[in-house]
Amino acid sequence: MNTNNNVYTVIYTTLIVVVVAALLAFVSQSLKGKQDANEKADTISQMLTAAQFGTKAEFQKAGNAAVLAKYAEEIGQAFTINVNGEKVQDLDLTKVYSPKELKRQNYNIKGGANKTGEPELPVFVFKNGKTVVPIYGAGLWGPVWGYIAFEQDLKTIAGAYFDHESETAGLGAKIKDDPAFQAEFVGEQPDFSQANVFEIVKGGAPAADGKSLTDNKIDAITGATMTSQGLDVAIDTWLGAYAKYFQAAAPKQDCCGGEGCEGEGEHCENQEATEE
Amino acid sequence: MNAKLKETILNPIFKGNPITVLVLGICSSLAVTVTMKGALVMALSVIVVTGISSLILSLLRNTIPGRVRIIVQLVVVAMMVILVDQILKSFEATYAIDKQLSVYIGLIITNCIVMGRIEAFALGNKPWPSFLDGVANGAGYGLILMIVAFFRELLGSGTLFGIDILNRFGYVPNNLVILPPFALILLGCIVWVQRSIQKDLQEK
């Protein structure tokens, strides 16, 4: 058979492309459910890690089913807000925001050509009073995102977890892989009255004993300037969008650790109880 | 097993290693060798892709129109790469590692070893030897990947397969080792070692 014949060549290539395309479409469709389930469990374990229910490695070891069960047990309420801090609608308690959805909301917050509507920002409140909100932005090679958990007072950061698509392993990837970096966020109090709610700075942020100061500044990652800056912008943008909500929803009398406080309110005792 | 088949399998592992002798697949060996786990998954993925693509194309070799053979190869290899990526994403155990390797799994298609072996071997040989040649070349690639990853993870993070080895003794991880240039330096050292053992590779 003459395989260099034009008609043969056209038929052959058409056939092989159609067969391969059909096969890939079939595989993609049949595996989609599993892939989505993996992504969802991954997202939930990130939120749980931020809220200090355990470490990411523990959740990874425990498996998807255990992560979903833990989340169902701990989540109190979930709803979306707009940039004015007003509640828009309640969310189904099994619903989480995938990185793709965060990306869409990121465009909505920042405006511009990719804006598809008014931002609808998710707020996840756990039964122990901790509130978890997402952040999303651009790192060096691709998107970075993560979750920041706040204590009951809605002022103090209880924990944080960050993830990325393709930051350099060992450098930018430390936002995800280095628990010490994430631990620095604990205890910080973002300043919601400013546009720059939070800072990731080079040098000087940790105290002499190596522990992080609660001065609203985090030590940036050595060798990962662009990733650190990208994360800083992501946090400023997103916490900025949540600022009105946090200011309005924060409990009014807050004596915990504040100066000039006489006696501690009921709220403070609760907080101490959760911290133990 | 006859001698020729044995040669097909053993040659790519050392004497004709795709990375150190043919100098193919350099880019991905710089990119995915920061951790042993990543390198292992990458190596296994490449073995599957080269083995099965070689097998399929060897089966088709007498029917492929000569003028579009590269395109046909490309379609088959791309299909295998997407299949591997989709499957890695679907299992709980491999989801995290697939996320870590991100684009590099997809970029296996640009790995010259795959197309190189198909052009040089699979199109002119029977399916079974072609399959073995693909697997052996993937394994030769994987071996170098693991050696490079061993040094980079040990010196760059103080761990092996994520398990702390050096950090407990107060080792401070070396950032240079994490960066791609160091992988190139390591590769150079491996080529040096191999050439001093295998004198016939040295240019006169």
Describe the SSE topology.
The complex is a heterodimer of chains A (276) and B (204).
Chain A: H1 6-50, H2 56-62, H3 64-74, E1 75-81, E2 87-90, H4 99-110, E3 121-126, E4 131-138, E5 143-150, E6 157-164, H5 174-177, H6 179-183, E7 199-201, E8 217-219, H7 225-249, H8 266-275
Parallel strand pairs in A: 7-8
Antiparallel strand pairs in A: 1-2, 1-3, 3-4, 4-5, 5-6
Helix pairs in contact in A: 1-3
Chain B: H1 3-10, H2 26-31, H3 36-60, H4 69-90, H5 92-101, H6 103-106, H7 112-120, H8 127-157, E1 159-160, E2 163-164, H9 175-178, H10 180-197
Antiparallel strand pairs in B: 1-2
Helix pairs in contact in B: 1-8, 3-4, 3-5, 3-7, 3-8, 4-5, 4-7, 7-8, 8-10
The chain-level mean pLDDT of chain A equals: 83
Low-confidence runs of at least 5 consecutive residues of chain B: none
User: How many beta-strand segments of chain B?
Assistant: 2
- What is the spatial order of strands in the main beta sheet of chain B? 1-2
Largest sheet data of chain A: 6 strands, antiparallel
SS-based structural class of chain A? alpha+beta
